[in-house]
Amino acid sequence: MTLTSFGPANLIKRSAETHPLTWRLRDDGEPVWLDEYQAKDGYAAARKAFADMAQDDIVQTVKDAGLKGRGGAGFPTGVKWGLMPKDESMNIRYLLCNADEMEPNTWKDRMLMEQLPHLLIEGMLISARALKTYRGYIFLRGEYTTAAVHLRRAVEEAKAAGLLGKNILGSGFDFELFVHTGAGRYICGEETALINSLEGRRANPRSKPPFPAAVGVWGKPTCVNNVETLCNVPAIIGNGVDWYKSLAREGSEDHGTKLMGFSGKVKNPGLWELPFGVTARELFEDYAGGMRDGFKLKCWQPGGAGTGFLLPEHLDAQMYAGGIAKVGTRMGTGLAMAVDDSVNMVSLLRNMEQFFARESCGFCTPCRDGLPWSVKLLMAIENGEGQPGDIETLLGLVGFLGPGKTFCAHAPGAVEPLGSAIKYFRPEFEAGIAQAKPGVPPLARPIVIGA
User: Fold this and answer.
1) Residue 105 has what pLDDT?
2) Which of 318, 332, 335, 336 minimizes the C-alpha distance to 249?
3) pLDDT digits over 229-250, tens only?
4) 299 and 372 inside one domain
């Protein structure tokens, strides 16, 4: 699988007007370094923000554009920026880039960091100016070794050009930027667990409130944004609110473009920048090329392993948060996975739940104990040793680990695909239920109240 694959996009010329995130990409996949980036209007938006815009005006522009977080939660970025304190005496504050991309089937941030590192740096520079943060960190997934090398080189290039460090662009504004590689924990994608890890602590989510905007890194005001989110900022500042809103398809409630993709046994797996509101069918058939010969689409996930399964008849849904919500799940990261008709759903879910159980921080009981329990039940069903009532128990766990029942969103995301798989493919789970043999005690089962 290639990190950038354009399929029918070969017939659609990528330009700054239609593809703000990817128009600068090289055809050979090599990184765009500083000289080439600046030749392609790189840092022009930063110069505009520093020379012509007040800091509060930058925040308002991002808010008016309707930019939402691209990490999966979709919280309005400008609103999040507005939570940072206005008190000028609080002069120590931080900007964190969440680059801990560990959602299975998702690799969009990796492409941006490996091939367009200066786009992320420019986005962070403008954001730091708006938020009055003097120091920034890119918290990078440790396994992204190539991205780490490219980002560190780009940071040094920006420093040498006077775009980072002291008195940037003669404005009197100082901003230092560091690349910090994590130790490999999925839970660090949760912003407060990321903050704990950056401080050298165990990566547990923190209780909120207080939110990071008030009490973040080392107790100081902190803003955490995703890689793709920050990479949208230069185009918004450079081209304006009306242009940004015009990019999405009719019917979409989200604005701008989104990096979307398809993995699995499709003919052309890859990643594309597309307008919000494109249908999943267009993404699947026109860009990913449909299923490979000999395979049939059984179901699909719209945005990572933590989103619910959908059926082929759901492909006409528009790819934006509200469009995917209409068919019963979340858009997540926007990188879909096709499941072919040779896959047993029980085995697939057992594999997924093993991952989520292993990556639980263990802080709260429902997640710590509930996810391994689901794995135990799924393994029994997979081996044909499930007991009557196991499916109901699994559904009970889906309810007990749902939104609002656990300390963070890890467990709700983990059980969403499980609940949808049972909903659409229950006979495959029922096939693994064996009648209890006389004299053989059943496996230990959780007590599910009100299941």
Assistant:
1) 86
2) 318
3) 999 999 999 999 999 999 999 9
4) no
Cβ–Cβ < 8 Å for 410, 402 = no
How many folded domains does the chain comprise?
3
Q: Look at residue 143 and tell me if it is in a domain.
A: yes
Please give the pLDDT value at position 293.
Answer: 96
Pairing type for strands 335-340 and 257-264 reads: parallel
Residue 159: Cβ-neighbour burial (10 angstroms; 0-12, 13-18, 19+): middle
CATH code of the domain in which 323 resides: 3.10.20.600
The predicted-structure confidence for 63-86, as pLDDT tens digits, reads as follows 999 999 898 788 899 999 999 988
Three-state secondary structure call for residue 378 = helix
Q: In what order do the strands lie in the sheet with 257-264?
A: 270-275, 257-264, 335-340, 297-301
**DSSP classification of residue 314:** G
Encoded amino acid at 160, one letter: A
Q: Please give the single-letter amino acid code of residue 141.
A: R
Residue where the block lists tokens 């990190």: 3
Same domain for 351 and 331: no
Q: Are 302 and 411 found together in one domain?
A: no
The percent of residues above 70 in pLDDT, for the chain, comes to 93
For 4, which DSSP code? -
Hey, how many other C-beta atoms are within 10 angstroms of the C-beta on 112?
25
Confidence of residue 90 (pLDDT cuts 50, 70, 90): low
pLDDT of residue 6: 42
64: nearest Cα among 53, 77, 75, 54: 77
Domain boundary among 340, 367, 401: 340
Closest listed residue to residue 356, CA positions, set 391, 405, 309, 307: 307
| Strand 222-226 to 270-275 pairing | unpaired
Q: What is the pTM of this model?
A: 0.91
Q: What pLDDT was estimated at residue 438?
A: 52
CA distance 287 to 155: 34
Positive or negative: CA dihedral 428, 327, 3, 34:
negative
* Sign of the torsion angle spanned by Cα atoms 78, 82, 84, 90: positive
Could you give the angle at the alpha carbon of 265 between the alpha carbons of 259 and 268, nearest 5°? 50
Work out the pLDDT band at 435, boundaries 50, 70, 90.
Answer: low
Look at residue 325 and tell me if it is in a domain: yes
CA neighbours closer than 13 Å in the CB half-sphere of residue 414: 32
Between CA 14 and CA 412 the distance in angstroms is: 37
349 and 371 both lie in a single domain = yes
